[in-house]
Amino acid sequence: MSRALPKYNKRRVVILGGAAAVALSGAIIAGTALAGTPSKGSGTDARTLAASPGTITCPDVASKLPAIPASAQAEVTRNLTLLQTQIDEANKRLQSTVGQGGPNFVNNAILGPLKDKRVATVNRIATAIGRTAAKPTGLDALAPCALNAAGGKGANTGNAGNANGNAGNSNANGGGNNNANAGGNANGGNANAGGNANAAAAGTITCPDVASKLPAIPASAQAEVTRNLTLLQTQIDEANKRLQSTVGQGGPNFVNNAILGPLADKRKSTIDRIAISIGRTSTKPTGLDSLAACTLTK
C-alpha cells in the first residue's frame, strides 16, 4: 500500500492539473472573446468616436479666380496655400474637441473663426490681383465652410486609433515625432539635445522660386498650377527633413546623389506639369526646367 498510494496521488495531481489547464484555457478563450467585443458600457468605441465629428469642407477658391498677373502669382499662391492650412487646422481642432461644448460649439469655436480667417485671406488674394489687373469681386461668398457630419474623409481613419482626443497633435510635425512619449517628452519632441546643432551642421536646401517666374495664369489652369506649386514646397520640406535625418551618413557625394539629385528630378516633373496646364489655354512657358536644380546652403 505504501507504493500504491504515491501512484494514486500522482494520478490525482495529473487530473487536477488537467482540470486547471482546462479552466485556464476557458478563461483565456472567454477573455479573448470579450476583448474582441466592444463593451456595452463603454459607449462609442474609438473608431466611432473618430468618425463622429465629421469633416469641415470649404468652397474652392483657386478655381474661381480670374487670370492671375505674373506679378501677383507668388502672393496669390501663398494665400491659397494658407487657405488649405486653415482648413487642415480646423479639422484637427474638430477631432481634438469631440464632446466639448454645447450644440453650437462647432459653429462658434471652429466654423466662425475659420470663416473670419478665410475672409481676410481671400481679400488679400483679391487685393494682390487688383494691383495690376481688375480686382475680382464676390470672393467673400467663398469664405463660409460647412460641417459634413457624416464623417467625410473615410471617418478620418488615419486617426481612428487616437481615441483619447489627442488629435491636437495630429502629426502636426509631419510624422517625425508621432508623440510617441504621450506627453512625457518634456523636451517637446527635441529628444536629441544636440538636434539643433545637427540641423545647423546639415545646412538647408534652397531652390529657385517658380511662382514668381510664371506668366499670367489662365483661370482654367489656376487650380492645377496652385496644387503643383504647393507640391514643390512639399518636396523641399521633405528633402530638408531627409537632410537632417541623414547627418553623417554616406560619403562626400551623399547629399548630391541621395537628396539633391532626386529632388531635381521631382521638381522637373512638377514644373513640366505647371507649364503644360498653362499651355492648354495660353502660351506654354519655356525655360522653367532651369529652376529645377537646388543647392545646399550651410
List the helices and strands and how they pair.
Blueprint: H1 4-35, H2 46-51, E1 55-57, H3 70-96, H4 105-130, E2 146-148, H5 152-156, H6 195-202, E3 204-206, H7 219-245, H8 254-279, E4 295-297
Antiparallel strand pairs: 1-2, 3-4
Find the structural class using helix and strand composition: mainly alpha
Write the element-wise H/E pattern from the N-terminal end onward.
HHEHHEHHEHHE
Write down how many β-strands occur, each being a DSSP E stretch of 2 or more residues.
4
Query: How many DSSP helices?
Result: 8
Shape: flat
Order of strands across the widest beta sheet?
A: 1-2
Q: What low-confidence regions span 5 or more consecutive residues with pLDDT below 50?
A: 5-51, 151-195
Q: Span between N and C termini? A: 92 Å
In percent, how much strand structure appears in the residues? Answer: under 5%
Indicate the mean pLDDT: 74
Helical amount: 40-55%
Question: How would a textbook summarize the main sheet?
Answer: 2 strands, antiparallel
Radius of gyration (CA) equals 29 Å
